[in-house]
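Section 3.1: Structural characterization of target chains.
Under the original work plan, the team committed to producing a structural model for every single-chain target entering the pipeline before any wet-lab resources were allocated. The record below documents one such target. The sequence was received from the expression subgroup and is listed exactly as submitted; it comprises 216 residues.
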Amino acid sequence: MSDDNKLTKIDRAPVLADERGLKFDSLDSMWRFCTAVVNSGTFKDINTPEIALIRLQAGLELGLTPIWSLTNIMVTNGRPSVWGDALLGLVLARPDCEDVIETFEGEGDHLTAICEVHRRGRQPIIRKFSVADAKRAGLHGRNVHNAYPARMLQMRARSWACRDAFADALRGLGVIEELRDIEPRTAAPERVKAAIVLPDEVEEKTITEPVEALLV
């Protein structure tokens, strides 16, 4: 085989790992992982490496490991969000979280979910969400609220209390059970995006037109 026909071996940096799994130190290692995720077909709602990358990065910023980032992060109505149980887990994992107490009061149309978050050195944050609140928001009897009304009230109260008590840790993170109830805005017409060309990818073009034509 001639030198011109020899295959070039691409050296890739190893992806680091410890007892908690993979650790990424570059965009290349993250992209390779995301490509493997898509090729595995394990996550049916992740069909491109770009989607996987966004969910991976969002989870890593919150302190989640790679697989749990993909499992618990979802972009809902254009906003990265987590399932309510993952939100609770993130809050309980904080060293300054003393307790999260969830209760119910009342029954039927008078049912109210209450969430009380205790953070060290601060006054407890208490938030409530009732059937009356759900009716005012147009949620009562709709979609999952019809099948699991108590659970949906619980998720709303939990979301409000946890996000108000730990805004610095959750960074405005939304909760899937809450965000999916928001009616999506009408999508703007899709624009054709110009190709992104890096400086070292620009090729010199030979001018074939007469100089006179370029001066017109």
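The chain has two domains: 14-76, 83-172.
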